[in-house]
Design a protein that fits this description.
heterodimer; A: 656 residues; mainly beta; Maltoporin, Chain A; 22-stranded antiparallel barrel; 5-stranded mixed β-sheet; 9 helices; 35 strands; 12% helix; 56% strand; globular; B: 283 residues; alpha/beta; Rossmann fold; 2 domains; 7-stranded mixed β-sheet; 32% helix; elongated
């Protein structure tokens, strides 16, 4: 044993006396608990493990939560399972600052911090880091994401601008769906849920690890009749995916995956067939990451007067390098190249492919204990716009143990969609009861559009106080250069009489928003969890036609409780959303008529039981959506919203 | 106290360059602190983890006992030795200062050697765990088993409630089960369940704590809390004398405990040499 340094305040004689005294004190101190202890050693060790379990449960990812440069909420696999959610957007309802709305039975919309609309393209949605946005609208077809809820390990929701790392569309946030590795599955799962309105959800997956090889296979089916129109199939989607990972060494890993989905979706007035597919390859060597993927889609839509197809392919290459030139500095640099090739009868003939280029750099600097600074920037080039800079800066101050304050400022953008740049249609709508003349609807494009840009400020507080986790954020943003449809109406003429109407996307208008979230989560133990959160947002448009201020709810409250003991699990969660206003009349009217969607509740309750003994692996569960609540719409019917009622479901799953 | 000892005791002078931080008053932590004091050779300030934690101004090394103490915020300039914190790993973000973990489990190579001494016919050893920190042990066990015919099946569970299902899956494959001291897996219910499963199916289970022998484990291979504290002290002294220290430290003395009744229940015939070499025997 090494000789320790001598205490600075003691002379050699004193040290000997102190040592003797310390030994004696130690012996007396040690005898106390022994004499008074009536517990067996095993009970004491279990007590120790329980104490450590409490610490580990309360402190999962402690550094990450307090030092992240942005607001991040995580929905875990257990959260999804306990919620009774049957769709991805339903699984996100309880997240503070997130508006998850059911548009119709088979489609949802997820918006972060306002700017609500049915087709939202200001949130980037990723599956294991790969974009799942549609090529034409930059929106998400949630049902087409080729994984079942059972395959999801967690969903990370980053609120605030993310263009500094992710480029276009990461305007008000990024949602990253992360799937389980085969090693996490270690076997198979089959699950079936049957519910009212002819709802069927089936999933089968298998994954494992053999030596250095990790693999996973998954498939699922979802079909349901419409909430609003019982007996009409709302949609049916089949999906599959496969993933292989190989560890060459502890520092080097290759992942290959692929999958797809095929589905139909119909509303009262339209029908859509869609197929999505992907293949990807990821390679990591030390701090270097290379990711490449191919996305493909074919969507065929039919409505009363139109049919259209949209075929798209995306090829993406992304490389990222981490550097730590000094213990206090960590640098991440990267570049991405993407090519989009699209064809559709909605696009101008000869629409070219798009090459998108981006470079980014982010520095994390810890000049002294408790302080972390993040500074980053990304530049992006779209073929129809200039180079665009998206900077972000964050300052995190851990002023007390596991409590931090953060201030962030950043910019984010959304490029014009391919439809906004190249849409070209000309169709004639025959006379109808509302319009006793034909309407010639000319949709034109605009290749001079600027990207939408958001300037964002955020102040955040995060704390992990033993079993209690608290987060509070206040934000302000300005969204400018919004891309909106400008309508020009010509003169009625010709025979038969026809009214020409031209729709053209234009830049214009600014929306300012203020708001915040307050969230608390209490882990009563490994068996129980309580949570509640409140979100507030106040939006102000500089022109009446933008409508963002009316369609975003001012207040939102979520609360829930979860209990799990032995084989029994029970949960109940409720979501209250303030009233919203949506445009009711069509674009041909010179005045805008708004209609109110009243405030509504969404309640999801679930009761499950895992069988012991010879039935181990089998779980039966019953869940109910909106019990005793009247049907309501979350987006106005005229905007595509459907009345959502209650639903009773039963699930049987078996792990092997 | 000084009065009790005749009034001749000088005021206790604490070593200022080191401090002990504990997260709990429970007996296992106290045993470890005693081991630390014995190894360090002189008293140090003992502090409790919490918001009022203030280190001595001259502190150059902190020894933290328990996850709560390990996760407290310490200056980068202060070396941290943490132990008794299973499932807790201080992240690389805190790489400004030296952070050393005293392991609660033997090195996988030593662990396997001891287990095979107890059960020489073992062909498949199953390891069940939850906390991410145990992935490295699972990898280490696989590496250590590679030259032999022993197969390691490592299964990470998502939570303690997954144990029954995992055991059922392993029933046909396992010759033995080894459970690390994973706080997210082991609790009263699961230990009872393991005992029932083990005894009913003739599959012995092993743990890292001799204290758990009486819960039905056939054997234990691990370190005593006292020895863990002692190893923490030696590491702290090395840091103070500026000797090189790796990120992980293993206590020197592995303790083997055997529960003969449990071994008999599962039909395990433990070689006489292993019985002879055991540090603790439960008849």
């Amino acid at each position: 044993m090494q000789q320790a340094e001598k205490p600075k305040t003691a002379c050699p004689g004193e040290v000997a006396a102190v040592n003797r005294a310390a030994w004696l004190l130690g012996a007396i101190w040690a005898l106390g608990p022994v004499a008074s202890s009536a517990q067996s050693p095993s009970t004491e060790t279990i007590g120790f493990l329980a104490e450590e379990a409490r610490v580990v449960t309360a402190s999962l990812s402690p550094e990450r939560a307090s030092r992240a440069p942005a607001t991040v909420y995580v929905v875990t696999a257990e959260d999804i399972r306990a919620s009774g959610a049957q769709t991805l957007w339903d699984a996100l309802r309880m997240v503070p600052g997130v508006d998850a709305m059911t548009v119709d039975t088979m489609q949802g919309a997820v918006i972060i911090r306002g700017l609500n609309r049915a087709g939202n393209n200001r949130v980037l949605v990723l599956l294991d880091g790969r974009t799942v946005l549609d090529n034409f609208y930059d929106t998400v077809n949630w049902e087409a994401i080729p994984v079942t809820l059972e395959e999801i390990d967690r969903i990370e929701i980053m609120e605030g601008p993310g263009s500094v790392l992710y480029g276009s569309n990461a305007v008000s946030g990024v949602i990253n769906i992360i799937t389980k590795a085969g090693a996490q599955l270690k076997g198979g799962l089959v699950s079936y849920t049957g519910a009212e309105r002819n709802t069927h959800l089936a999933a089968a997956l298998y994954g494992d690890r053999r030596g250095k090889l990790d693999y996973r296979l998954g498939t699922g089916l979802h079909s349901a009749d419409s909430f609003a129109d019982a007996g009409r199939l709302a949609g049916k989607t089949g999906k599959f995916n496969a993933a292989l990972g190989y560890d060459f060494s502890k520092e080097s890993r290759l992942d290959v995956s692929g999958g797809g989905s095929n589905g139909t979706r119909q509303t009262a007035s339209s029908f859509q067939d869609s197929s999505f597919g992907f293949a990807r390859l990821d390679y990591r060597f030390r701090d270097t990451r290379l990711r490449t993927f191919w996305n493909t889609q074919l969507v065929e839509s039919r409505s009363g007067v139109t049919t259209a197809y949209e075929r798209g392919n995306t090829y993406d290459l992304n490389i990222q390098q981490g550097l730590a030139p000094h213990a206090d500095h960590r640098l991440t640099a990267g570049a991405s190249l993407r090519r989009n090739e699209n064809s559709s009868d909605l696009l101008s003939p000869g629409t070219p492919g798009e090459n998108l280029l981006g470079f980014f750099l982010e520095e994390q600097w810890r000049p002294r204990e408790g302080w972390t600074f993040w500074v980053g920037a990304r530049v992006d080039k779209h073929p129809l716009t200039d180079w665009l800079l998206s900077p972000r800066g964050s300052m995190v101050w851990e002023f007390r143990e596991r409590q931090s304050l953060r201030f962030s400022v950043g910019k984010a953008f959304r490029n014009p969609t391919i439809l906004e740049s190249y849409l070209e249609t000309d169709l004639t709508v025959p006379p109808s009861p509302g319009y006793p003349f034909s309407i010639r609807l000319i949709s034109s494009n605009n290749r001079d559009l600027s990207p939408e840009q958001m300037l964002f400020f955020e102040l955040a507080y995060a704390a992990r106080l033993d079993r209690l986790k608290v987060q509070a954020e206040a934000f302000h943003y300005r969204l400018s250069d919004q891309i909106v449809g400008a309508v020009s109406i010509g003169s009625l003429g010709g025979a038969p009489p026809t009214l020409p109407v031209t729709l053209r996307p234009m830049n214009g208008g600014e929306t300012r928003a203020y708001g915040g979230e307050l969230a608390a989560e209490f882990a009563a133990g490994p068996w129980a969890k309580l949570f509640a959160n409140y979100s507030i947002q106040e939006l102000k448009d500089d022109r009446a036609s933008l409508l963002n201020d009316r369609s975003s709810p001012e207040n939102k409250i979520n609360a829930g409780a979860r209990f799990r003991r032995a084989g029994l699990s029970a949960s109940c969660q409720a979501d209250w959303v303030d009233r919203t206003f949506w445009r009711q009349n069509d674009v041909l009217s010179s005045t805008v008529v708004m209609a109110k969607t009243p405030a509504y509740w969404t309640i999801n309750a679930r009761l499950g039981y895992s069988f012991p003994g010879r039935w181990e692996g089998l779980e039966a569960a019953v869940s109910v959506l909106n019990p005793f609540l009247p049907a309501r719409v979350e987006i106005l019917r005229e905007q595509g919203g459907e009345a959502i009622g209650s639903r009773l479901s039963a699930t049987l799953s078996y792990r092997f | 106290m000084a009065t009790l000892l005749g009034g001749s005791l000088p005021a206790v002078v604490l070593a200022q360059e080191a401090a002990v931080v504990t997260g709990s008053e429970l007996r296992p932590y106290q045993e470890a602190v005693q081991g630390f004091q014995a190894g360090f050779g002189r008293p140090v300030a003992q502090l409790k983890a919490g918001s009022g934690l203030r280190l001595p101004p001259d502190a150059r090394v902190v020894v933290a006992f328990g996850g709560k103490a390990a996760l407290a915020r310490y200056p980068d300039a202060v070396g941290l030795v943490y132990c008794m914190a299973p499932g807790t790993r201080i992240g690389p973000v805190r790489n400004g200062g030296l952070r050393v973990k005293v392991r609660m489990h033997p090195h996988p190579r030593d662990l396997l050697r001891r287990l095979r001494e107890i059960q020489p016919g073992m062909k498949t050893l199953v390891m069940l765990w939850v906390s991410e920190d145990y992935a490295s042990i699972a990898d280490g066990l696989r590496e250590a088993a590679e030259p032999s015919d022993l197969r390691i099946v490592s299964e990470r569970l998502s939570g303690p409630d997954d144990l029954p299902e995992a055991l059922r899956r392993m029933r046909a494959k396992a010759d033995a089960i080894w459970l690390p001291l994973d706080p997210r897996l082991l609790n009263e219910d699961n230990l009872d369940l393991l005992k029932e499963f083990s005894w009913a199916n003739g599959i012995p289970f092993y743990t890292a704590s001799a204290d758990l022998l009486e819960r039905g484990a056939a054997a234990s291979v691990g370190f005593s809390f006292h020895d863990i504290g002692h190893a923490a002290a030696q590491t702290a002294l090395k840091i103070l004398s500026k000797e090189a220290v790796g990120p992980d430290v293993f206590p020197d003395r592995i303790q083997v405990g055997i529960n003969e009744a449990a071994a008999s229940k599962v039909g395990l015939r433990i070689p006489a040499e292993a019985l002879k070499g055991a540090d603790r025997l439960l008849p």
